[in-house]
Amino acid sequence: MRHGNFSNEPEQRFSWRVLNALTPYLWEYRARVFLALLFLIAAKGAILVIPFLQKYLVDSLDISKGPSPATTVLLFLVIAYGLARFANTLFGEIRDTVFGRVTERAMRRIGLQVFRHLHALDLDFHLNRQTGGLARDIERGVTGISFLMRFFVFNIAPTIFEIVMVVGILLANYGVSYAVITLFAVTAYGVFSARATEWRTQFVREANEADSSSNTRAIDSLMNFETVKYFTNEEFEAQRYDTELEKWEIARRKNRLSVFTLNSGQAMIIAVAQTSMIGLAAFQVRAQEITLGDLVLVNAFMIQLFMPLGFLGFIYREIKGSMANIERMFELLAVEPGIRDADDARDLEISRGELRFDNVTFGYRPDRRILNDVSFAVPPGQKIAVVGASGAGKSTLMKLVFRFYDPDAGRVTIDGQDLRRVTQHSLRAAIGIVPQDTVLFNDSIFENVRYGRPEATDDEVWDAINLANLAQFIASLPKGGDTLVGERGLKLSGGEKQRVAIARAMLKQPPILIFDEATSSLDSKSEQAILAAIENISAGHTSLVIAHRLSTVVDADRIVVLDHGAVVEQGSHRELLTQDGKYAELWRIQQAEARNRPTAPDLLVGDAG
Ligand SMILES: Nc1ncnc2c1ncn2[C@@H]1O[C@H](COP(=O)(O)OP(=O)(O)O)[C@@H](O)[C@H]1O
Ligand SMILES: [Mg+2]
Question: Is the pTM of this model over 0.85?
Answer without folding.
Answer: no
